[in-house]
Design a protein that fits this description.
The protein is an alpha/beta fold and 222 residues long. It has eight helices and eight strands. It is globular.
């Protein structure tokens, strides 16, 4: 499938988040399959952590989607910033990681929990889940109390991920957990082993859907 490309855009300007995301997507780089490229929005904030941040990157993302050549796009921020305006500027499919992560959770479990970065993220996520109509399956959402750039502190991040993950599974009754930030990708496998529940990296979920979209359009001989 020479020349096919999936472009994953990190809406924030934190290159460490992009690198972590790209590493987690390595299994999706199939021999002979579409390229899976990751791009940092260098004009964005260091982390998309508020509604103001969400609004500030919307047109930046539309500009990137409109100027880049790809067969599918992924907006790699759990707030799905600019998702609908990006869909207006291209005829190719555009996937938001929150929407895809939640859809995968519904397909794999009964009640899902979400690990957010900060408490102030939760009302924004709840508004979005109400719009998607999935709150009936929500066991709960809890926050790490960390900012996006603090995910680079592995010891602190890991401790909080385990604490919050156990709160959601053991106390709230979630049988599947969704990571509420693309920057958490590096911890998914370890956390799944500790919690003994499926843990979804929403960026992987979105790229999986993008791969399906691109592969389904491939000629029968590919």
């Amino acid at each position: 499938m020479s020349g096919k490309r999936i472009l994953v855009i990190n809406p924030n300007s934190n290159a460490d988040v992009t690198a972590s995301m790209s590493e987690a997507l390595e299994p999706f780089r199939l021999p002979g399959g579409p390229a899976v490229d990751c791009l940092t929005n260098r004009h964005g904030p260091l982390g998309v952590e508020s509604q103001r941040d969400v609004e500030s990157v919307t047109l930046q993302l539309a500009g990137l989607v409109g100027s880049e050549v790809a067969d599918a796009f992924v907006i790699a921020c759990y707030s799905d910033p600019g998702l609908h305006v990006c869909r207006e500027v291209t005829t190719e499919p555009v996937f938001g990681i929150a929407e895809c992560g939640l859809l995968q959770a519904l397909a794999r479990g009964d009640r899902f929990g979400v690990i957010a970065m900060m408490d102030r993220s939760i009302p924004r996520h709840l508004r979005y889940m109400r719009q998607l109509g999935v709150t009936g399956r929500l066991a709960g959402e809890a926050a790490l109390g960390l900012r996006v750039h603090e995910l680079a502190d592995e010891e602190r991040s890991w401790t909080r991920l385990v604490e919050v993950g156990r709160e959601l599974t053991e106390d709230a009754g979630a049988d599947i957990v969704v990571l509420g930030c693309a920057g958490m990708a590096r911890y998914r496998k370890r956390l799944q082993a500790v919690l003994e529940r499926p843990v979804i990296d929403p960026t992987q979920a979105a790229v999986g859907m993008a791969l399906c979209a691109v592969l389904s359009e491939a000629p029968a001989s590919i």
